[in-house]
Amino acid sequence: MDSRIVQFISALRARGVRISLAESVDAFKAVEEMGVNDRNSFRVALRASLVKESDDLPVFDELFPIFFTANEPPRMFNPSEELTPSEARMIADALRQFTDKLRKALEKMLEGRPLTPEELNDLAQHINFEAMADPQYQEWLSKRMEQAMQFDEVKKALEELAQMLAQMGMDQQRLEQLMQMMEANAGAMQEQMRQYAGQRIAEKLSEQEQRHRADALYNRPFESLSDEDMLILRKEVNRLAAALRTRLALRLKRARTGQLDVKATLRANLKHGNVPIELRHRNHTLKPKIVVLCDLSTSMRHVSEMMLSFLYAIQDQISKTHAFAYIDHLEYISEFFHGSEPQAAVTTILKKMPSGHYNTDFGFSLENFTREYMDMVDRRTTFIVVGDGRNNYNQPNIELFKEVVRRSRNSIWLNPEAMTLWGRGDSDMLKYAPLVNRVFQVSNLSQLHEAVDHMLLGGG
Q1: Is 458 exposed, middle or buried (0-12, 13-18, 19+ CB in 10 A)?
Q2: Strand pairing of 410-415 and 438-441?
């Protein structure tokens, strides 16, 4: 318990609560006096010792349940102990109809076995807990673990199991009792994953005392960001864009003289008997011309807003930017950015494409683009798509995409989804990806900044 209290104090400090060494000692004395058996008394002892300002109370109340939850898993039932031999045979026959993974999950619920620490660690291995060490993401992280376990499929399998057993003739009352206990065990597993997420968050919070919050946001997935997080990252985008603009301007200045143009030099010096007194250089114009198509559906909105913010923050170093937004159709949006901050511009654009559940259709939007705006693409154009490549099983219009890529100087796709999800469900990404010069995964600000930096300074 002492080490847990130390971690808790470190996390409070990381969130801006000022706690001196003497106050930490007072907290341990108070806990020793009040004990830990009564949860409310324990909480009051810590709060009275550590919190001096009323503004810090919300932080304390937010972190306390994360650090001091029950260590044991939720209670689970073992309905298999009450099964008759006939019922056990029915269930065994029914379970054989499921895949190995689903069968094992159903057997755990039937036997009342909680997830082991190894199983929890396996579910969490692809989740970056360090980048999301904040209590507000506990539910989001536990949902990610449920997805890794394919929990929705497990619950559907539970319903199918009930139907099978009913068809096999199991007594209705016994069947209902069995299902109630298995559903309760499913809920206990969900609570176990939620507690695990909370414990991992607590561990990471205690390690972040010296880390600034903005640094942690760099690697946090866009889809998990709160409104407060987005405010912080918008400021970071402006800072990063300012540094990028300076580098672009310096590169342009250095490259203006270009390489020595031998033919032009000889022509210019004919009057001097071909003695090269006046040197001529090729004039290199590095400012790119950009056409960008941004998916503004709910899952892509933050990524597209950040990308547009980058482009318009460095607009003086870009020859021309033509920006488009799409969900189920295409809209030309460059005009909204003249004299406006990107966030305000995106807000205006969303009035034309309000929030809601849309059937994203990049293929149809691509058809809109090639019919009305194809003349914007030429040998100077860098063509950029910001999207997840999902068409909701509509036509992907690959041939139209090939034509746009063929006409452009450079083609780039920015996708927040992991490559393991490409081609799954309604994703056509595996069809688009081979056609462009470069694909970047941009699930967070760090990756997006790296992609923009590479596009404009790394030669695409």
Answers
A1: exposed
A2: parallel
Same domain, 355 and 277: no
Q: d(Cα 353, Cα 347) in Å, to the nearest integer? A: 10
Q: Would 276 be classed as within a structural domain?
A: yes
For 335, residues 6+ apart whose C-beta sits below 8 A from its C-beta are none
45 and 169 both lie in a single domain:
no
| Residue scoring higher pLDDT (314 or 367) | 367
Residue located via tokens 């309905």: 79
Looking at residue 208, its pLDDT comes to 59
- Does residue 307 have a pLDDT over 70? yes
For the chain, how many structural domains are there in total?
4
Confidence of residue 460 (pLDDT cuts 50, 70, 90): very low
Residue 12 belongs to domain spanning: 2-68
Residues 336 and 404 in one domain: yes
Q: Assess if residue 379 is contained within a domain.
A: yes
Examine the domain organization and report whether 298 and 173 are in the same domain. Answer: no
Q: Is residue 151 part of a domain?
A: yes
Q: Angle at CA 26, nearest 5°, toward 22 and 27? A: 120
Closest CA to 134 of 188, 19, 211: 211
Q: What is the mean pLDDT of the chain?
A: 81
> What pLDDT was estimated at residue 210?
44
At 281 the three-state DSSP class reads strand
pTM exceeds cut of 0.85: no
Q: What pLDDT sits at residue 400? A: 96
Alpha-carbon span 6 to 3, nearest angstrom? 5
The secondary structure of residue 364, as a DSSP letter, is H
Residue 340 and residue 332: Cα distance in Å, rounded?
16
Residue 199 reports pLDDT greater than 60: yes
CB of 315 within 8 A of CB of 290? no
Q: Kindly state whether residue 40 falls inside one of the protein's structural domains.
A: yes
Q: Domain check: are 278 and 320 in the same one?
A: no
Q: How far apart are the first and last CA of the chain?
A: 53
Reading phi first (left if > 0) and then psi (alpha if -120 to 50, else beta), residue 84 is in beta
**pLDDT tens digits, 138-191:** 788 888 888 888 888 888 888 888 888 888 888 888 888 888 888 888 888 888
**Residue position matching structure tokens 């901050």:** 341
Please check whether residues 184 and 164 belong to one and the same domain. yes
Q: Is the pLDDT of residue 380 over 60?
A: yes
Are 445 and 329 found together in one domain? yes
CB 95 within 8 Å of CB 103: yes
Strand duo 289-295 + 320-326: pairing: parallel
User: 250 and 265 in one domain?
Assistant: no
At 419, which CATH number?
3.40.50.410
175 or 212, greater pLDDT: 175
